[in-house]
Amino acid sequence: MKKLQVKSVELASVFKLFSGIGFVIGFAAALFGFGLAGESFRQMLQQIPFVGPVMQGFLGAIVFGLVSALCCGLTFALLGVLFNIFSAIMGSLEFDVDEKD
Description:
Shape: elongated
Order of helices and strands: EHHHE
Strand order of the largest sheet: 1-2
Distance between the termini: 13 Å
């Protein structure tokens, strides 16, 4: 049995991974309308100048996907910073891994 330790995470890789996941989920949610916003919220968005026309259809799904990618990437990068701080103070994560031939 082999032990692996995770002492820190690279923040750029965490940001890239979760930004991609956030974009796919946000794009799909906006494009297919998974019920994230009610009809009254959509009507309020359409009343805002320069924002209303952009937040409709395929372009709106892309914009929503990009915003959710940025939010998701930044959130998990912040969690990566917290992991690096706490692992430096308290120790790393340890995994037991079985090797197969």
